[in-house]
Amino acid sequence: MTTAENRAKAASLKARFEAAGAAPVDCAVLQPAEVLLDLYGEDVRTRAFVTSDPVRGEVMLRPDFTVPVVQMHMAEGAEPARYTYAGEVFRRQEDHPERAAEYFQVGYEVFDRESPAAADAEVFALFFETLKDYHLSPVTGDIGILTAAVQGLQTSEPRRAALMRHIWRPRRFRALLDRYAGRVPMPASRAALLSADNPLDGAGPMIGLRGEDEIRQRVDALRKDADTPALPSEQVSLIEALLKVSEACPFALEHLRDLAVDMPAISVAVEQFGARCDAMAERGVDVDTLAFDAGYGRSSMEYYDGFVFGFLNRQQPNWPAVATGGRYDALTRQLGQGKEIPAVGAVIRAGLLVDMDAGAGA
């Protein structure tokens, strides 16, 4: 479809969100790379377009609107606040060359302290209503339940921190869980390194940014980790059972409450899920048939830390989600310079709706 059609669809969606009470905002196409690198680490370079500005230094073509909108709100926004925006975003697509690297994104963001469950329901219900004519498949999840489970594990703080860092990288998370549970043997090369009296003997000249002191500190940390008792097998089994929960919301809630009996660390997050279901039902969402998947959003929603959702086109399995959203309270803490506020939002890929409109008219 043409850029003009995509732009028109984006403008109509933005107007709908303005009518729902959101204030229109805009963000610069060039964003400081430093902020995104601090948030996501160097691997963000594999997903964003990076360039250099002679005055501003390293910058990125806007990969999304959420981060700059949070920065703007935390610096100058009133409370409560609702924002909407529309414009191009830019993402590298090496793993999916069939997908556009530049596309129109339209969003709706809510900053409100009064009731997180009500705000979650507000955003989901608005997108559910906006997209109802496209017959998409909605799916929900909750990253907060998994993070609560990890925080409750009976293990060392470094191990909990490592698992928390990799919640959004399912394969790495699985590998760490297996290693901490003692399910896989230590690689021979690491065992030799940790048993050596002087790990740097015969290492040759130092190459790279790490000095000898840093290397020794890293080896000491690995030795402490090797001496840490294995994760209890029953705790690992509970995490595995949690990640397998995938059913309609009422059944998922019942299942999670059963798990919370043996995993009390998730109890508060599970009851927040229950409150969200009630708030959605009050807004007319049929939660009895709404899908919940405990693992949803773990590979594509790095700044979401609670409720997550997406709207999928099951007829186009190679497409990304047409719309995605969720709660990102932690992001407001990271960007708030000492302030924080509960926040939730979502975005729509306007061009995919244009494609669906064209297909329906064909």
From TrEMBL:
Keyword RNA-binding recorded: no
Transmembrane segments: none
Example GO molecular function: glycosyltransferase activity
UniProt entry keywords in alphabetical sequence: Glycosyltransferase, Transferase
Segment forming the signal sequence: none
Gene Ontology process terms (BP): histidyl-tRNA aminoacylation
Residues where L-histidine binds: 64-66, 91, 105, 109, 298, 303-304
Pfam family, one: tRNA-synt_His
InterPro entries (alphabetical): aa-tRNA-synth_II, aa-tRNA-synth_II/BPL/LPL, HisRS-like_core, HisRS/HisZ
A GO CC term attached to the entry: cytoplasm
PROSITE patterns from the UniProt entry: AA_TRNA_LIGASE_II
Domain Aminoacyl-transfer RNA synthetases class-II family profile: 11-317
Keyword set includes Transport: no
Complex and partners: Homodimer.
PANTHER family for the chain: HISTIDINE--TRNA LIGASE, MITOCHONDRIAL-RELATED, HISTIDYL-TRNA SYNTHETASE
Protein name: Histidine--tRNA ligase
Species the sequence originates in: Sagittula marina
